[in-house]
Amino acid sequence: MIDTWWRRRFSHLSLDQLEAFVLAAETGSISAAARRLGKAQSAVSTAVTNLELGAGVKLFDRSKKYPVLTREGEVLLKDAQNVLRRVNGFLDRAYAFASTEDAHIRIAVDEIIPQPFLSRVLERFAEKFPQTELELLYGVLTDIQTLVEEGRADVGLLVPYDFPDKAMSARRLAYMNFFPVAAKDHPLAALKRIRPQDLEPHRQLCITSRGGEREPDSFVFGSRTWMVESSYVIRDLVCRGVGYAFLPLHLVEEELSSGRLVRLPLWQEMAPYQAPIYLIWSQSRSLGHAGMWLMQEFFQIKKAVGY
């Protein structure tokens, strides 16, 4: 807030005066500034003079043919430019909001979602909606649903092991296949065909949410399990030979190509586990142009996971 003394001292200063000052400095003359503003030269000259009188500082040296900024004027020019830039930003944002563009969008994303897909969407979003603020929250499994339910996120990209709560709107976008992987020197990597009894003696790394949700029991085969909240940590531990895990191919594609990890061959009756990808949103939250645009972009995630 502006101090009361300063408010009384400079209450007569205006944005028109600042604009006249900035344009006169940038164009090099009062007449050029007047042409840019579409005003009489005398009006622009008066605005600059009144700004100098009100601020109590000389902005231009008028002893030559064309006015030249004083040392004080050079410093204050940057401040004036910043003020006008902020005012224009304020007006642009206010206009956008008046046109039903969202002021702030909060997105909750399951960390397993392919990052290149999300980054491409957000890059286009930044260009299309420059005035809308964005908050990106990460979690796993039911963490995403909790963020949307509690109003901490407007929309969520969720990879659950069960159907989302009926209290919110949901749309299934695609399926993501999970395959068992292990380090190249892990004992399981030497087997030509993996059966359930082959997995049982080895440590399995499983994903878990902060709320306690975990992989379905039908996909937990190890007698010793580690529960980890991050799929990326699981991937790194698997690379170090700590255990094996079921992970989506896009998360381990580089490691498989380099040979650090191997995809374990499943027994014939065992199909890859498929997890659905859902877009969820609160029924009580009305989204504007930016939010609806994001949802339409998220509907294209099927292309990102290859299904």
From TrEMBL:
A GO molecular function term, named singly, is:
DNA-binding transcription factor activity
Q: Mind telling me what this protein is named?
A: LysR family transcriptional regulator
Q: Do the record's keywords include Iron-sulfur?
A: no
Q: Which domain of life is it from?
A: Bacteria
Describe the family membership recorded for this protein in Swiss-Prot or TrEMBL: Belongs to the LysR transcriptional regulatory family.
Which InterPro entries is this protein grouped with?
LysR_HTH_N (IPR000847), LysR_subst-bd (IPR005119), WH-like_DNA-bd_sf (IPR036388), WH_DNA-bd_sf (IPR036390)
Which Gene3D superfamilies does the UniProt record give? 3.40.190.290, Winged helix-like DNA-binding domain superfamily/Winged helix DNA-binding domain (1.10.10.10)
Keywords assigned by UniProt, alphabetized: DNA-binding, Transcription, Transcription regulation
**Domain HTH lysR-type span(s) in chain numbering:** 13-70
